[in-house]
Amino acid sequence: MPKVFVGMSGGVDSSVAALLLKEQGYDVTGVYMKNWSKDLPGMKCPWADDLADAKRVAVKLGIDFEVWDFEKEYHEKVVEYMLSEFKKGNTPNPDVMCNQEIKFKLFFEKAMGRGADFIATGHYARVASPSRLLRAVDENKDQTYFLYRISEEAIAHTLFPVGEMLKPDVKKLAKEHGLHNAYKKESMGVCFVGEVGMKDFLKEYIDIKPGEIREIESEKVLGVHEGAVFYTIGQRHGLYLSGVAGEVNDGLPYYVVAKDLEKNIVYVSKNLNDSHIWTKELKLKDVLMRGEAKDVLVRLRHRAPLIKATFDGETLHFQNEIKRPAAGQSAVIYDGEICLGGGIIA
Amino acid sequence: MRMIYLDHAAATPVAAKVLEAMQPYFLDEFFNPSAAYLPAKKVNADYEAAKGEIAHAIGAKGNDIVITAGATEANNLAFTSISENAKVLYLKTEHDSVRNPASRFKHEEVEVDQNGRIVINDLKQKIDDDTELVSVALANNELGTIQPLAEIATLIRAIRIERLKNGNTRQLLLHTDASQAMNLLDINVARLGVDLLTLNAAKVYGPKGVGALYVAHDVRLKPLTLGGGQENGLRSGTQNVPGVIGFATALKLAKEHLNGNRKKYAEFRKILLDEVKDYELINKKHALDNFVVLCFDGLDAERLIYLLEDREVYVSTGAACAASKGVRSHVLTAIGLTDSKINGSLRITLGETNTKEQVHEAARIINEVVASEKARIHA
């Protein structure tokens, strides 16, 4: 019987992944990765409940279950990376980093050291022999956007049991097998930030330094903010602008178009055609590719539509102007349904 | 009811008579006890009478108790009796609602033996001239171990006299949390010799969120909540009239059932000990009769809980709050159990919802579940 360690988060997807592996005859051990357990103001970290959910399912399936503690490594590799990126004015994606450094590196290596033939997770993605990462059957749930940086070695030894399924069928299967978490609410956003939101999380770690909000065209001061790091380019929501005396407010929303981290100034504009918002090319850094292609498909956000582009190994060129994603986010590159890799938007 | 509930130390259902006694005070008798008109005065009189009954149940007067929202608040309130630079001592096996307020002061933990009983000599050694409070639960919430409170009180009294002889006027108080003991022990504050005593309605078939702190005459507390000055200024806020009426009724019923309970739970406990197979009994001596802690060394008790849950048998490992934090029980650690034994320990707490048939059935189901886990491991 091939031996597989399946990462179980307590959610329905990884529970069904474990169930399918068990049914397929693997020697399955469920593992809860304890990456974060700290409560934040206004939000109790649900790790203990999630762990209990995962364990309850493992017991129901009659499989072994273990807790692997990666809190120290998660803090070093994911949280500190995230904070340093924010401090540089970028908008990083910690989930991409978590998959690269924790789930498909530390977890993978530990499992292999324990004699595993495979690891498995509840991600919506597929693997084609020997080491190609493919988008999930359920296009709506595809999670390759978060997985593009994992190594070929890990891909070659990974199973994504729910990647062949549609989400409603996953839920149905969970219900049919009496798994209590079939209807558990999906975790949203970054797991440890949860519902309090990134801004509240960052406030715990980054000092609040008030600064000016200026209109980019006129340099006019429109209001104040709590720190430029808390704002993302393209953001519309959450700008508390005071009106400018003597001007008629036309009611149009402002967008963040630029930040000056040194002077702690956030620049905004009402002009939706502002050149800061639109671009025809994106320069990437930390490019990681598992194959070559010139004419590619690109995804700029999880679940965003695929856009045609050409890639020269460093820069993506688009036919039409696209809304510029924030620096620090990922551009993920596909050749058909193969996820070739991608890079971090510079 | 098909389910077999064996976790009465975590929560008890509200007794029918308790609910019945409370109901009018949610509906017709809803008045604020502090209001001026006669119907409100009547509610106030009923409230005070109920407080009197609660106090009477432990050999005290209504004025000696402060109503709180449960035992945790009562324990916290008890710690307001001491001065800032004082030292506090508490038993190593105390509940977090004692350990956490104690941690704000100079504090030390008093050792227990392998049965979870206080090591009196250790207490004696640790009481120094700065010690103002000693907190020892009458019965432990994970093991049911009953502590020799009267013996502790005798020691404390002797030290007080010694202090006065030496011109040290610092107070030395004895606090006990009696939450788990109320169904099986006849509690009397004078006999126990305590200065502060915590009660909890939720553990005696009363409503959740209602508790009380007995406070001896010469003990001065500071309020945790300020406002309209209710409860002699020690706990402001409109009184929880139905809760207190329910609490009084629940304590009255507990008193009535005391002797019958002891006999009944001793018999139930024996059935479990006779019929469950291949375990080690953890709380062998000095335990409340309704507490049965069984260790299946080598097995994972949490897995057993989920397997039993599937069969509608509800038990726990240690305290519910400790389990939800995913930490190993400090109580089982304190009595010197190995990690492997702690992981294999199940806490069964019997109560009013149980029948003899249920206990036989529970033993049978536990045996099946344990056998299935052993089979899985050896497969």
Defining key terms:
heterodimer; A: 346 residues; alpha/beta; Rossmann fold; SH3 type barrels; Elongation Factor Tu (Ef-tu), domain 3; 3 domains; 5-stranded parallel sheet; B: 379 residues; Aspartate Aminotransferase, domain 1; Aspartate Aminotransferase, domain 2; 7-stranded mixed sheet
Q: How does this structure look, described?
A:
The complex is a heterodimer of chains A (346) and B (379). Chain A is of the alpha/beta class and 346 residues long. Chain A has helices at 12-23, 47-61, 71-87, 94-113, 144-147, 152-156, 167-176, 198-205, and strands at residues 3-7, 27-34, 64-69, 118-120, 125-128, 132-135, 158-159, 211-215, 221-225, 255-260, 265-269, 278-289, 295-299, 307-311, 315-323, 330-335, 338-345. In chain A, the strands form three sheets. A six-stranded antiparallel barrel of chain A has the order 12-15-14-13-16-17. In chain A, strands 3-2-1-4-7 form a five-stranded parallel beta sheet, sandwiched between helices. A four-stranded mixed beta sheet of chain A has the order 9-8-11-10, with no helix packed on it. In chain A, strand 13 (295-299) and strand 14 form a beta hairpin. In chain A, helix 1 crosses helix 7 (167-176) and helix 3 (71-87) runs antiparallel to helix 4. Chain B has two domains: 4-12 and 258-378, Aspartate Aminotransferase, domain 1; 16-252, Aspartate Aminotransferase, domain 2, CATH 3.40.640.10. Chain B is 40% helix and 13% strand. Chain B has helices at 16-22, 38-57, 71-78, 96-102, 120-126, 149-165, 189-192, 241-275, 301-310, 320-324, 330-334, 339-343, 356-378; strands at residues 4-5, 65-68, 87-91, 106-110, 131-135, 173-177, 196-200, 211-215, 280-281, 291-295, 313-314, 345-349. In chain B, strand 3, helix 4 and strand 4 (106-110) form a beta-alpha-beta unit. Chain B is globular. The A-B interface holds A 37, 47-49, 51-52, 55-56, 59-60, 62, 65 and B 302-303, 306-307, 309-310, 324-326, 376.
